[in-house]
Amino acid sequence: MMQRLLNAALLLGVAIALHVSTFLVPKESLSDAGEEGSAPGGSQETVWTSSLTERVAFSMGGVYFACTGLWVALTICIRVPLNMEAQHDADISVTKRTSTGVLLLLQDAYISWRIALLCFCGGALFWSHFWLFSFLMLDFFCQNTLLQTNVKAVTAPFRSLTMTFLGAVIVTFCYASIGFHWYRPEFGDYCNHNVMTCTANILYQGTRNGIIGL
Question: Against a cut of 0.85, is the pTM above it?
Fold first, then answer.
């Protein structure tokens, strides 16, 4: 049952994310076309193309919230008592054992992620921030083993990648110092203020347009 709830939530999350990306539009686009869109909660930025698309979004969002909420509730009812039983010290009060069991549960990244998805869905449903539905598609990274492998391939060498980036920043800083003091005209507007601004501009524009100053 638990796995079926996860599968249903994944399919619903993808469906509602695609639905939002297609039928949630800027209010100005409907005004220019001479149509009147609905803006639940007083939103002045985006509206649904029609009342039908709005009802579909609320329906799918409600079912998603129910599936994920039920999964979270069942997991809490199963895991918290087990975590409490693992605490063998009889001197610990029930309140402290319960709080410790909940904290141990929240340390599980998978459960914390499902709670985060539940919050995204709740924010879209109850506060009319419908763009939050788009984040439900991120559940693919949690339920698909191939995507998990890709994420691990990036996060595993995170320290090495960070040091590589730091090294590139240091070299760019020295390059910007030379350019600021000796080749300012060639660098143009990128280095008119100070070395720090010059470094930031080179890092930003250099990754887009190539090496600045050459």
Answer: no
